[in-house]
Amino acid sequence: MLRRTDDRHGEANTWDSLGLIHDRLGHHRRAARCYGRALTLYQRIGDRYDEADTLTRLGDCRHSAGDRAGALRTWRRALVILDGLGHSDVDRVRERLARAAPDEPG
Asked: Do 32 and 61 meet the contact criterion of CB atoms below 8 Å apart?
């Protein structure tokens, strides 16, 4: 329905929500694919905040799946966007980076 009405933001939000559901169920690969679809759509419409928010959840998913390096890379991408936006969620991402890589700068 969202595709038929060309509601890309709604479609991106739906993919993001599906990613969260799959992640909570422990289906990390499926979650990552859903987050990837959401990211593509957010990038196409230029929604930088939701892109960063989804990157944060994708980093969480990768971390839960045991991919620490992938999580760190993904959280750093989110950090750059949020920092550029001057958004307060940047602190939330910095905390994740500090917990996952205490020896590395966030």
From this structure: yes
pLDDT in tens, 19-33: 999 999 999 999 999
Q: Per the domain annotation, does 105 fall within a domain?
A: no
Taking the whole predicted model, whether its pTM rises above 0.70 is answered as yes
Task: State the residue range of the domain holding 22.
Answer: 8-100
d(CA 44, CA 66): 30
| Alpha-carbon span 84 to 43, nearest angstrom | 15
Is 66 part of a structural domain of the chain?
yes
CATH assignment at residue 51? 1.25.40.10
Single-letter code of the amino acid located at 48: R
